[in-house]
């Protein structure tokens, strides 16, 4: 357990601990005051660039691929998204509902397919993001602009405030979960299997799609799209949209992000009521992640769904909302 904590708030996709050292450098601003400079992680820059070039090339393969392959790629995208939204986000980061072992195992596998860091690291960064939102301790601080909050934060070593504040939070609940520990221990192997091998081999083996098309469409394109959809929650949903629940915070209600991120775009609501399993006011429009959790509840795999009372929501709207809803 101590070893798991020692790896600390240091890594991002494609990084190892050495690249995310808490040490930084200082530089003088034009006003002469010291400011913190984060060092660029060039390996991340190169790999992410190649990934996106591969995704653009993948678009050219769509007309040549079988329809079943495109459907499979979309199903893999949905599973990937659920591993983040229903798994790492609403279950493990916010404890907004409880899931029985079979569902936790499925969500952990789906999270490995997402390849956005293991559950422990994802939740650690997300809890720091909520507690210190839009400050230097926020891993993807939207006050630093769209590019930084979308992808730029992965191109630099973490700000020392992110690391220092992250060390002070309690992650006992995550370390006590054997599913989280298992996924963390075997994360690299599970990513290779879930993110690349299975999505590529299924179309090739079952309906005779070429390995080339399978790899670029079901793995590269699907992975790149899922990354950008998740990043839009950090960027667009913190900059564009209305704020009916709290006009004093940055997160917004963004319908475009909601469509792509299967229900995660009701971001002003979520940051106002982070404990709510629906991450939106019940009855609001398009929220497939909530539908999935409700279906799992019907199957008996989910219990203790937490919700914000209607009276609390209305009172908060009246007190701090921008009047848009």
UniProtKB/TrEMBL annotation:
> InterPro entries in the record, alphabetically?
Acyl-CoA_DS, FA_desaturase_dom, FADS-1_CS
Keyword Electron transport tagged: no
Q: Which UniProt keywords apply?
A: Fatty acid biosynthesis, Fatty acid metabolism, Iron, Lipid biosynthesis, Lipid metabolism, Membrane, Metal-binding, Oxidoreductase, Transmembrane, Transmembrane helix
Transmembrane segment boundaries: 45-65, 71-92, 191-208, 214-233
- Annotated compartments: Membrane
Q: In Gene Ontology terms, what is one molecular function of this protein?
A: stearoyl-CoA 9-desaturase activity
A GO CC annotation recorded here is:
endoplasmic reticulum membrane
Cite the Fatty acid desaturase domain residue spans from the record: 72-274
Region annotation (Disordered) maps to 1-30
Coarsely, its chief localization is membrane
Extract the coiled-coil ranges from the record. Answer: none
Q: Alphabetically, which GO biological process terms does the record hold? A: unsaturated fatty acid biosynthetic process
Q: Per UniProt, what is the membrane topology?
A: Multi-pass membrane protein
Q: Which cofactor does it need?
A: Fe(2+)
Listed PROSITE patterns: FATTY_ACID_DESATUR_1 (PS00476)
Identify the Pfam families for this entry: FA_desaturase (PF00487)
Membership in a protein family:
Belongs to the fatty acid desaturase type 1 family.
* Domain commentary: The histidine box domains are involved in binding the catalytic metal ions.
Q: What is this protein called?
A: Stearoyl-CoA desaturase 5
Native organism: Terrapene triunguis (Three-toed box turtle)
Lineage here is: Eukaryota, Metazoa, Chordata, Craniata, Vertebrata
